[in-house]
Amino acid sequence: MAKEAINIKGTRQGLAILLDPNKNFDEMKSELIFKMEKASGFFSGAKFTLHGVKNLYPEEKSQLEAICQGYGLIPSADVPSPRERYNTKTPESPIKSTNMPVAGELALLVKRTLRSGQRVAYEGHITILGDVNPGAEVVAGGNIIIMGNCSGFIHAGVNNNRKSYIITLGLHNAQIRIDDKVLFKTPEHLHNGPYVARIEDNKIIYYKLDRPG
Question: The CATH number of the domain where 162 resides is what?
Fold first, then answer.
């Protein structure tokens, strides 16, 4: 039997709403609405806390909270998660990955090209040994290094980390985001990198790294 995208647990402090990080956002949203409708106002007036939101964008978390509030629930940061928790695997797509602690910082190594519909999200740095194709997505709390061409959506420095940067061997119509700054589209063909993207003067710039000699 498939796991639910949303699991609602009652505690003395209120409702702990557990999100399965292996499900996509649309599944979470649809199932949350379904369960709220099914409850027929039973949860109205209860405090709630969302758990398992680490891989969500802030706007996605806000949407889920707004749904709960629309059914009369009250947001709170004080409802603890019960002992039974989801097994949090990153990434959600079937990609084998290895955690690589470097200089005391969290890092994730993905040894595969990412294809359309695949998403990798991690709280630390991410290195991709392959391409990031159109429709693929990489989201990191730190830096992102792509040992291949990038044509997808890349978001570094998710947690207000403006010092984060992105390095890739090629850029092809990619959308780049660092913290809250967005570069909606890079040129079609930038080959023979590496190229670096970072924030400078409150906007994203990108340039080719000079090679020795």
Answer: 2.160.20.70
